[in-house]
Amino acid sequence: MQQDKRTIKTERAIRQAFMQLLRKKDFAAVTVSDICEAACISRNTFYGHYADKYLLLDRITEEFSQGLLTQVIEKNADNDYRASVAATSKLFFDYLEENRELVRMLSANNAQFWQVFSQHMQEFMLGIAGDDDRTKVSVVYSCSA
Q1: CB of 86 within 8 A of CB of 129?
Q2: DSSP of 59-96, one letter per residue?
Q3: Which residue from 46, 89, 90, 108 lies 20 to 30 Å from 99 (Cα-Cα)?
Q4: How many other C-beta atoms can be found within 10 angstroms of the C-beta atom of residue 59?
Q5: pTM confidence score
Q6: Contacts of 105 (CB under 8 A, 6+ apart)
Q7: Which of 22, 23, 139 is nearest to 92 (CA)?
Q8: What is the DSSP code (8-state) at residue 2?
Q9: What string of pLDDT tens digits covers the 145 residues of the chain?
Q10: What's CA 135's distance to the chain center, in Å?
Q11: Distance (Å, rounded) from C-alpha 60 to C-alpha 70?
């Protein structure tokens, strides 16, 4: 089902306002009122999309991790990313580098950011590691680093 264009526009405005505020101050100092003012929306509109600012941060973190997995798969569309755990790991770290500012803001403001990121990376990498126990140990170790 396709989302309404107004909903998409409002979501985008909320996220952009939120990220803009995180560039200026810590997550703890950002209020829903700040987000609403910066996004030019009402509090009711905000709460129609998110229960609170914590859910907003969690969703952005989750979407970042999912975007990473999508990019790894797309960049390896012509290759078998399953063939090389090392090459796939490099793509993960390239993605972090390409999104350095977002990573900095998310990791500084979401205590679970690295845990969520590591969990997604580990699940994905274990899925391509095959049955080799040494490779699995290497994946778990690398992802926890």
Answers
A1: no
A2: HHHHHHHHHHHHHHHHHTSSS-GGG-HHHHHHHHHHHH
A3: 46
A4: 14
A5: 0.75
A6: 19, 22, 23
A7: 139
A8: P
A9: 567 899 999 999 999 999 999 999 999 999 999 999 999 999 999 999 999 999 999 999 888 888 887 877 777 655 655 566 677 777 778 888 998 998 899 888 888 888 888 888 888 777 777 777 777 787 777 777 6
A10: 26
A11: 15
**Among candidate residues 122, 36, 41, 50, the one with its CA nearest the CA of residue 85:** 122
Amino acid at the residue 21: L
CA distance 20 to 17: 5
Distance, CA of 37 to CA of 42 (rounded, Å): 8
CA angle, 125 as apex, 121 and 129 as ends, to 5°? 165
Rounded to whole angstroms, how far apart are CA atoms 47 and 137? Answer: 43
